[in-house]
Amino acid sequence: MNLLEGRAAVVTGSARGIGLAIATVLARNGASVVVSDIDAEGAAKAAADLEAQGLRALAVPCDVTDEAAVDALVDACRTTFGSVDVMVNNAGITRDRTMAKMTLEDFKTVVDVHLTGAWLGTRAAGRVMRDQERGSIVNISSISGKAGNFGQTNYSAAKAGIVGLTKAAARELAKYKVRVNAVQPGPIRTAMTAAMPPEALTRMVESIPLGRIGEPEDVANAVLFLASDLSAFITGIVLEVAGGRHM
Fold first, then answer.
1. According to the model, what pLDDT value does residue 181 have?
2. Domain count, the chain
3. Which of 155, 156, 181, 242 is catalytic?
4. Which domain holds residue 154?
5. Mean pLDDT rounded to a whole number for the chain
6. Does 155 qualify as catalytic in the annotation?
7. Which of 40, 92, 129, 233 is 20 to 30 Å apart from 105, CA to CA?
8. The predicted structure's pLDDT at residue 195
9. Residue 3 within a domain
């Protein structure tokens, strides 16, 4: 399928994990993809791997908390590929601790990367997409932003904030034919879940009605749907990709 043929996409935090899966699925569906990450070497390798598959990719390092860097990232996509049709704000970090042990710096850093980063990306992409009168912005939230996770007051707050950002931006940009939606992944098979004690992972899977942990491609396919014309009449929604957990 080539749902995104002729379109250009930016994916932040895409050197590895869910971000890389998103970049790969978008590229396999015809998009020219800007692979972006604060890890410049990782982004370059990921883009090179996509190009080795015959896909169109460009690596652009970016710290999503840096306003000028985010603007330059979006401009690089437009300059290289001619447009910015899809923006996926995926970059994120964790600094897990209970509130009693969490420092103010750890709280602010996580909120800054997730929420401020998504706001900067949405604003920068929106600037270009308004002129184009088309575009799809997908913000990666988390089921933690809905249910809250123990030891993640910073992460859960940031991910909940992304939902509010998404809905407000969707209202502002709708008149320009720009759609803004969010995806809330649940437990996904990543390096973080792989490091969990087996008994903890088993308990987690038991809490998922569909009976399995999610794969990065499950999230990527949801992003593809929201990025493509299959969702042309959808904006301001939150799509849960969690196997029914916390439904």
1. 99
2. 1
3. 155
4. 8-240
5. 96
6. yes
7. 40
8. 76
9. no
Residue 176 lies in a domain: yes
Residue 71 forms part of a structural domain: yes
Residue 1 has what pLDDT?
67
Listed range (77-86, 91-100, 200-209, 230-239) with the worst mean pLDDT: 200-209
Amino acid identity for residue 162 in this structure: I
In a domain, 206, yes or no: yes
